[in-house]
Structure formats: C-alpha cells, structure tokens
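Quick one, tokens below. Sequence please?
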C-alpha cells in the first residue's frame, strides 16, 4: 500500500526541502517507486531534482485546480531516480483560489493523487514553510508527517506550533494523521546546544525521534546548484550516507 508522507515544518530554513529531495533519491536507490510532490511555491524541490521551474508545461497548481490530471504533469527525473509532480511560483495563486471554494478545498491534493496509489510505494510531499491551504491539503492527504528539525531554540518553538496544527487537522479532516518521525538536520554533535535539545526531544518524543541525524555538510549544500540530490552528486559524502541511513530507518519503521 502506498505511504503518503508530508515533510513539513512551519519554520523555514530547517532543511525540509533538502531532506525531501535526498530522501526521495535514497528510497528510489533502494528500489522503492517514489513520487515527490513539490507543494512549495519556491519550487526548490523541483530545481533540486534537475527540472527548471520556469519552463514547466504544467505544475501541481494545474492539478489542484482540476485543470489537468496528475498523470499529465508528473515528470520523470532519471538522474535522481524518482518521479516529480513539480511546483513553482504559480502556486501562490492557489491559496486564494482554494479559499474561494465552498466545499472540498482541503481535499484537492488527496483527490488528485488517490488515482496514483497503485503506481508508487511512497509519495513524499514537500510542504511550504507556513500554515496555509497548501499545507492543509498536504496534511489532509498524508498518512503521516516527517518533521525535519534543526536543534536550536526557535526550531523548538516552531515545533510546538506545528503540533497544535496537527491536532487541529486530526480533529477536522484527517483523524488518522500521525507523526511518523522527527529527523534532526544540520546536526553538529560538538555543539552543546545541539546535544541539550536532542536530549529534550528524546525525553519528550521517545521513539518518534529518529536515530538518524543529518549532519552539516558542504556537499549537501552544493548539490542543488547542480540539479542533483547529494546521493548522486557526492555519493560518498557524509551527507549522502546519512540520507541513505535515514531511508533505511524509515523502511524498517514503516514497512515500506
């Protein structure tokens, strides 16, 4: 059965898109059929997959608006190894258009990708770093959340707000939504604050905190400018190896 996972954090700059792209590539390298959905108007997941967001014939916006089926828009990313439902700045228009709908506005993405269930083992949704109708669509469609988190004070504050949002979504449109895991990104074990916050997370979330950490790594930062996941750009780097370990942990945890 297809597992739909939304990668989300209302705080920006925590490595959400980087995790989405590299996790998609790592799962694909482990013979999983993966679809990455770029629901962020910045379009960084699209660019990081080697697709020019300015040259799209169709995007996830067309799918949300019902103008095209997802199968008409999905692109193959042969170098990365997965399929992509691309996004770009046109998604900023989706917020107003979705809010204008009287019914079913939170289910547009779910309705669009439901028909794809048999074609993919995993659907990863890269959410915008804010709580808007795009994020609500992702949380409505998802079986669960993967939360990338940087170990710093403000990131913890953002996590608290996100947990409140999850409860609201569960109470209203997706009672089965669950937090599948929290992954620590830009991790530096030499930093005392990083260690302190890791302990707080472990004490509070227990096994929900994934064992794998994603380190700060220059190769991870360089890879998007080449339109490649780090697993393809620098496969033997620490960042690449960490994402492969993360993929294996999720496969074991979620029986993917």
């Amino acid at each position: 059965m297809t597992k739909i996972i939304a990668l989300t954090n209302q705080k920006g700059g925590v490595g959400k898109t980087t995790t989405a792209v590299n996790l998609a590539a790592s799962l694909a390298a482990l013979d999983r059929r993966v679809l990455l959905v770029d629901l962020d108007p910045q379009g960084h997941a699209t660019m990081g997959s080697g697709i020019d967001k300015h040259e799209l014939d169709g995007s996830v916006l067309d799918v949300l608006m019902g103008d095209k089926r997802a199968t008409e828009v999905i692109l193959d990313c042969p170098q990365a190894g997965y399929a992509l439902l691309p996004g770009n700045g046109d998604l900023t228009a989706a917020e107003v258009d979705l809010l204008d709908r009287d019914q079913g506005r939170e289910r547009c993405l779910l309705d669009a990708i439901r028909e794809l269930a048999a074609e993919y083992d995993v659907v990863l949704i890269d959410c915008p770093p804010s709580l808007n109708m795009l994020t609500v669509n992702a949380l409505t469609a998802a079986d669960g959340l993967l939360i990338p988190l940087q170990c710093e004070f403000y990131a913890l504050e953002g996590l608290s707000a996100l947990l409140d949002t999850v409860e609201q979504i569960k109470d209203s449109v997706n009672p089965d939504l669950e937090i599948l895991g929290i992954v620590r990104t830009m991790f530096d074990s030499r930093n005392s604050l990083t260690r302190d916050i890791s302990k707080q997370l472990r004490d509070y979330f227990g096994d929900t905190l994934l064992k794998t950490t994603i380190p700060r790594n220059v190769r991870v930062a360089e890879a998007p400018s080449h339109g490649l996941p780090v697993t393809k750009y620098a496969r033997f780097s620490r960042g690449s190896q960490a994402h492969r370990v993360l993929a294996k942990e999720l496969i074991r945890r979620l029986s993917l």
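Residues 153-172 form the longest helix (20 residues). The mean pLDDT is 93.
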